[in-house]
## 1
Amino acid sequence: MNVLPVEAPAAAEATNAGRTAHVIAAIRARIATRSLGPGAKLPSIRKGADLFDVSPSTMVEAYERLAADCVIQARPGSGFYVLSSPAPLVLADLGPRLDRAVDPFWVTRQSLEAPAESLKPGCGWMPPDWMPEQDLRRALRSLARTGATSLTDYGTPLGLLPLRQHLTRRMAETGIEASPSQVLLVESGTQAIDLVCRFLLEPGDCVLVDDPCYFNFLALLRAHRAKIVGIPFTPSGPDLDAFAEAVATHRPRLYVTNSAFHNPTGATLSAATAHRLMKIAEAADLTIVEDDIFCDFEQQPAPRLAALDGLQRVIHVGSFSKTLSAATRIGYIAARPDWIDGLTDLKIASSFAGPALAAELVLSVLKDGSYRRHLQAMRSRLAAAMGETRRRLARLGIAPFIEPRGGLFLWCSLPEGHDATDVARLALADGVVLAPGNVFSVSQNAPSMMRFNAAQCADPRVFTVLERALCRA
Amino acid sequence: MNVLPVEAPAAAEATNAGRTAHVIAAIRARIATRSLGPGAKLPSIRKGADLFDVSPSTMVEAYERLAADCVIQARPGSGFYVLSSPAPLVLADLGPRLDRAVDPFWVTRQSLEAPAESLKPGCGWMPPDWMPEQDLRRALRSLARTGATSLTDYGTPLGLLPLRQHLTRRMAETGIEASPSQVLLVESGTQAIDLVCRFLLEPGDCVLVDDPCYFNFLALLRAHRAKIVGIPFTPSGPDLDAFAEAVATHRPRLYVTNSAFHNPTGATLSAATAHRLMKIAEAADLTIVEDDIFCDFEQQPAPRLAALDGLQRVIHVGSFSKTLSAATRIGYIAARPDWIDGLTDLKIASSFAGPALAAELVLSVLKDGSYRRHLQAMRSRLAAAMGETRRRLARLGIAPFIEPRGGLFLWCSLPEGHDATDVARLALADGVVLAPGNVFSVSQNAPSMMRFNAAQCADPRVFTVLERALCRA
């Protein structure tokens, strides 16, 4: 018998319906994580009622609804059993039970599905008119004139060599030394991290993340059934005492972090923190995934863990979805040669080859001198937008955690007593997608924080709606 | 203690070096599959020697080499232990130990990495000049004129609606009824199957495949640590007695198969087989993945399992990599609405969004009337190439398993006494990539079979090299 009661339901939920829902959710979670396997017997009504501290009728109701959903099965005279066909992996059932409004998928789905006229200060990317559209049109026309092979054939397993060569030169600018054969092209930065997780993680392995961190790290790690431990994040990087303690206590397999501009805080790793962090990782034989997708927002390169480490235990990951195009994506992994070899087999197994045409397009834009000019103009425009956004937020009593050196994001605390999830829910009704703090927090300790994307805050209605939501929340 | 001896080494290997290699391989496999976890103690030298039926000195040698490779660690006075940092997932270490030349990755890597001048009758796709190059050029130019959003923004979670609508109309032509909200766009057919495996499989779950089957199914399922069981394949589909028995014995979670032209045999599922197969699947609550990537090669549609089943337990998967472009790929999954919902969350977690621009390109080609004309011309050209290839193979004494109604592939037996792996190895030295039978066979029962791609057999040197290899093998 493996059904342990979960935390007591919140007071607001402690109605009959709330109690039933709570029991159902707890049992579904046990089945999703396979702590209750296919065919497992569930506790009797009486025993279940004791365990969950509910009445027998609540327990009956919960079992009946689970049976109606074909999750469990009643065998007359014998009891209740998990249906033999195992439940699919439902990500929303893994991890802590959250209000759907602070589920890591909430911001993503709202942002991706929002109608064109919505305002999206909570989303993680720039509006189309901030992107190098003309460079892309030029790249498409140029590709339309090239040889048939690059239009129709699979690429090589590692991916387009001239792009890998270009990437090694870019990485060298931040001190990362890699040969082109140490670079594997994949479909996106997310796919890069996913491939690394497949390569290194077993279900149940512990992974450290920053708290707060990019919310999709949490979704991805839950999909790998990792045990996620958050490390409090400071303006100069992770809190190293907490990091060292977590390493000693949990013996994690991986630490996943952002270099350059940390998402969501916008903070930059200091040289001293980077050095001490690497010493702890080396002593504990810990592997680190350094996700560097914001590097093109940087004016001055911050320290890179991969540079300190020489790609021994650090796996460096990047993409161009934020500054070039999110429609034709390329991700890359730079790592030890033997790991690249294993990752390449996994890439073949899970996506066969590619993305060949996207690689040609991205290379064509990167080689074009106008991309560097685009980046310079974008950084100036973003710095101005950041200042303006900060001023407008200040008028509403919303204060940033730090003043980032650049990048897209302002991580802010709402005025005393406001819950960011409530504010986000109210703003959504007015067509504004916000990013409440707890979607970024594994410990759920950021209820009054919110991430703002300065490039998406140009429209003054963002602040009108926000002000109204603050008044009502 | 979990180290079980594996099958006795083949006679040719029963040298000292062979015995040591055998012990090392067996231990590595146990570590790769985590039946020996990090930190696990290995058997003592004496006990290991008994278990593997080797001399203690062979055992010492094996342990020393594993320790030198940092796989295990000697703790003086205590014994040998699996190193605490777990080994990454090395696909080549999973499944049976094979000659690298019949590894599922062999054909893929050789085909993808072969220099442009190589001949590739063993590869699974068409040469560039068989692909609709002009349609693609037109689509690229047209895309260069469209709005910025489709060039730079992430797509919606399900993917481009007009393409999903187009796909539902295409599927309706083979009797598959699906609404656009039951269709999820992904990066490729392989990624589609991978996502389904993530959704439905746990490590250790049993999956049925055809024997022979597309070799990358084996690689992909090994990456999911599935237990793979092969079902002998007949000219009208899987052997149903063997299928029913495997379902009863192994209680598989999934059956993965090709409809339309089966890879590698080129066979077509008969209506009677499809019907009986679905009855067995229904009775056992078995889920089926129907991979339909060869549908555009069909003149007359064969029965589709998804059509019989109404997308209840069949998940239908397709792509355009074989007939439109392998450089800008799109895969799709059609399934039950609640499964599409779970698959979409998994897609967001593992690749975030997309592929938006590839979807625009593929839709642009599909809508263009010239794509249908391209398909008609391609099928005629392929039928002629198939006839010519069959005649040339017959002159070398190579006989097809069946005469396929169409498609790319001829699955053939070599003349008596020839080993396809030896022939493939010799031909590779002459710049010809072949596909030896055992890469397709989970039971390794196709040592004298070989798959030929008729579209890649136009050059007469293919047959000169093949003849020479047959003489020498």
Note: The longest helix of chain B spans residues 369-395.
## 2
Amino acid sequence: MNIKPLFDRVVVESVQSEEKTKSGFILPSSAQEKPQTARVVAVGPGGVVDGKDVTMEVKIGDVVLYAKYSGSEFKVDGKEFTILRQSDILAIVE
Amino acid sequence: MNIKPLFDRVVVESVQSEEKTKSGFILPSSAQEKPQTARVVAVGPGGVVDGKDVTMEVKIGDVVLYAKYSGSEFKVDGKEFTILRQSDILAIVE
Amino acid sequence: MNIKPLFDRVVVESVQSEEKTKSGFILPSSAQEKPQTARVVAVGPGGVVDGKDVTMEVKIGDVVLYAKYSGSEFKVDGKEFTILRQSDILAIVE
Amino acid sequence: MNIKPLFDRVVVESVQSEEKTKSGFILPSSAQEKPQTARVVAVGPGGVVDGKDVTMEVKIGDVVLYAKYSGSEFKVDGKEFTILRQSDILAIVE
Amino acid sequence: MNIKPLFDRVVVESVQSEEKTKSGFILPSSAQEKPQTARVVAVGPGGVVDGKDVTMEVKIGDVVLYAKYSGSEFKVDGKEFTILRQSDILAIVE
Amino acid sequence: MNIKPLFDRVVVESVQSEEKTKSGFILPSSAQEKPQTARVVAVGPGGVVDGKDVTMEVKIGDVVLYAKYSGSEFKVDGKEFTILRQSDILAIVE
Amino acid sequence: MNIKPLFDRVVVESVQSEEKTKSGFILPSSAQEKPQTARVVAVGPGGVVDGKDVTMEVKIGDVVLYAKYSGSEFKVDGKEFTILRQSDILAIVE
């Protein structure tokens, strides 16, 4: 996918709930208000956001935890993606 | 169209959902809460917005992804346009 | 009309929807949520607004696009005027 | 009346809707959501308001336009007054 | 009363609506949304409030006008008091 | 109790409404919207809170007045405590 | 668990309400609006959050009190965790 997020935005790709991370982390896909795990597929350049300097801490390939309902979802070639602000990402799961 | 957006505003022209971008990006036109793709047709000069310096990162011709319902829509000669703040633009699609 | 807007305020005069701008820009008068076109008739001096320095970018005679429902309407000698903050103005139409 | 507004506050006295300003400005008294005209009768000293330096631009005797429902009304000896922040004043009418 | 308001807070004591100030200022006690007059009985030291330096402009004995419903009311020995931020005080009545 | 409030937080212990302060201050326990009196039992270190430097002005043993419904209540060994931000404290009662 | 909170975020593990802290602190698990106790299991690096420098004051192993309903809950291998901002933590219990 050739998408360049602006500023502090990050594109993530849904991680199947069957898929375990190295730490054995599983989130039931039916958990409505629970944070979501996803794999980072594109990262904005950071820079000045709302007059404040933002450094990007996540990188492509990171599996991250983010609050469900943050960001906007879209589809490319049948795959579901979400575009988030980095500040919506809670943690990196290793 | 001869419209000069002020400050950090950007005018975009709706991209038909039948139209594929280079990356094969398609958004079903019926997807109500999904981000929209559009082509930039006019870009404001940037400058000080709410006391913060804004540099314009998008340029005329860019295909961008923006959150539906941001901005204001208007029509010129039957074509639909939307005027957005640059910060409402999520990503550039290539 | 002898009205001096304070700070970053601008007085605009409703442009009839029958009236075309140079760019052929027309807004149906019934379009409720659409931006409005209007002609600038008075411009405040700018200066410090909410602790931030504001420079006025519009001038008397400009035809501008602004989000409907921003500003306050009033009447003088039967003509309808609207008083806006400059930041409510989306673009200059030429 | 011996009332000293604090900071950026201004006391205005209702202008009768029958009374014309020099510019022929009339506001029907029944216009509920329209801006109000009033004569300034007391002006605060300005100074630091919410951490920002405010200079007073209106003076006693000015006829001003302000958004209805801003400020607080009170009565002295049967006359109605309103106390506003200067930022609620839209324009000076001459 | 031995009460020391913190920061920019001020304790005021209800002025009987029968009581006239020097300027003949009267507020009917039934006026629900009108500003209230009250006598200042304790004044905080000012200082840094929300990161901004606040200087106290009112002093004990001042009769002040404040917007009803601002502040918190309490009783000591049957008398009613209100504790306000100085910024809730509209004017000093003399 | 061995509880260390973080930043600008303060732990207070409910003062029985039967208990008089030195100034004869009494608050009927049924007064729902009235400020509450309480004795300070733990004080945070202050420091940078929301990017602003906060100095603690209250100390253990102070009887304070705070707006009801601010803070969070908890129980230890049957006693009721409330944890507040210092900015929720209106005054020190002596 | 191998989870790295970003910025000022902290992962905490629910403390059983049967479990007493050293200070004898107990929170009935049915108390809906009461603060929660939990043990810190991961701490973000702090740094610039919303343009303000944040220093982490809690460390792994601390038992903390936080306002219920702050943060996001998730499960790993059947254990329940919550991810919070440090500013949602009210106090350290010892």
Note: The two ends of chain C are 24 Å apart (CA to CA).
